[in-house]
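Following up on my earlier message about zinc ion. Here are the inputs again, as you asked, copied directly from the submission form:
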Amino acid sequence: MAPSNGPPTARSDALSEVLLMLKTIQDDNAHLTESVDALRDRVEVLGFHNDLNQQIPKQPAIVAASQAEPTSLLVTPTVASLSKDVADEATKSPTQDPQRKPSTTGTSRIILTTYPSQSGIDPITMNWGHSDPHQRGPVVVSRRQNTLRRRNAIGAHGGSYSIYHALAVASKDLDAEHRPDFTNTEPAAKIGPFPQWADKKKIVSMDPLGHLAPWLFEDLMQNEDIDIRPTIAITKAHMKLPELERSVQAGRLVPDGKICLNDEGELAVTKIAVEPVWYLPGVAERFGIDEGSLRRSLFENTGGSYPELITRGDIKLFLPPIGGLTVYCFGDPAKMSDPNVKLALRVHDECNGSDVFGSDICTCRPYLIFGVEEAVKEAQNGGSGVVIYFRKEGRALGEVTKYLVYNARKRGSDRASEYFKRTENIAGVKDMRFQALMPDILHWLGISKIDRMLSMSNMKHDAIVEQGIPIHERVPIPDELIPEDSRVEIDAKIHAGYFTTGKVPDMDDLSNVHGRAWDDVDLESRYTSILTVFKACSIVSMELDVEDDLGLMARFGKMETRQILAEFDYRKCMTLGS
Ligand SMILES: [Zn+2]
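Thanks, got it. Here's what our run produced:
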């Protein structure tokens, strides 16, 4: 409809009036919605603080589950709840409603959140830090039919893999009610128990009973059909790293048939995988914040994924969707906690680009390999050697941020003096690894002192020492293991406080430490393009004008030039030509 340019008629006057009224109603509506939202926010915040003030619900503790009648665990709050029907829904079994279509989540209605006072909500008692496992209780987080009401943790098993689990259920590749068969999955080595396990200030980010859960709480699983899963698994394996074969050749590592198995540098190792389980009051305390702020931030910054962080102040555990860690223990695992033998330890944070794919922009893989080698030597000397690998890619900023920083560095002057600033400009912080929770695993392993700490990080050092674990010696990465292009990183870190036995560079020194720019990659492209011309035109002698090479690249394409580079030696080709 084209707008009319003429004077308004009576009809269009009426139309304008109607439009005006509509606009007023719309505005009023928007106002109303805003007011309701504001009101609801306040109610939620109030409710949240009330929840936080509540103590752990006064329920009978879980005595040895076999002695307790299942009903003795049930406490039914009488307060009618806003979403009683939701709770009722949760307690109904599908057989009660033959009309209902089977759903992948066990109930046809979506349960957005739960409240502590809600009918049917009856969490299994969790006394975090209690020394008696049955008094402490299992970590229960599953939303399976018979477990939903009994949960005492928010989140899901599997850390970041919980999302793949969701996909598997959604695509019907996995039955949501599947029960794991734990036959023969028991730990392959005995760890603990240690007094640290019963100190709720010492372990706040993993479940000290996580490797034993299905066996400790077998009765509860069988009698009440509660879904309880391990969050720690312990196995034994061999491992082979090409650098360690060279260590054997160089005589640094001597095969003993027990820890270093042969001339190829093959190692025997005990491996422990750990998924995060956060005790929220303890995590908050480590960071010097209040539990409410922590819960609110976790809720807001996960896109509102876990409303129970807000509505269930009575639930103190959260299984966050993040990566866990792996312990690599060389030698007898019992020696890790033996104060009479030496312990060498490397705490390593994931760097996929270097650790797996050999990038030379940082010292990660060389330091990791050095850590493994030193750990093996310590174990061979009658002590213990441990490497702990944390999934905290790119200082826990992730690879996307990391690569953006690389680009910014390589397109700038890539000086050590600018190193942290480049990260900070993009991510807002220079590091998000927050080592405050890292020492939990050391407490869990029963480690009470570290003789040789294979790390230069002041953050890791301080976090460990603050947790009451002394470090007797700090061992920096040997200079000869530092790749040329990673000087920028290591010098910037030393300047910022990383440990060194050498000189601490000042800002002047740092501005003289450059990384490799991208020119060399471009240079390589130039050579390959020349070779392409040689091959394509069968010319063995010609005057080369390097300025033309970019044009030649465009002519012959990158893939082919790469291939040719692999097949020919540019210099040989030049000699042939002259
Ligand atoms: Zn790295």
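One observation from looking it over: The first strand starts at residue 153 and ends at 155. Hope that helps, and feel free to reply on this thread.
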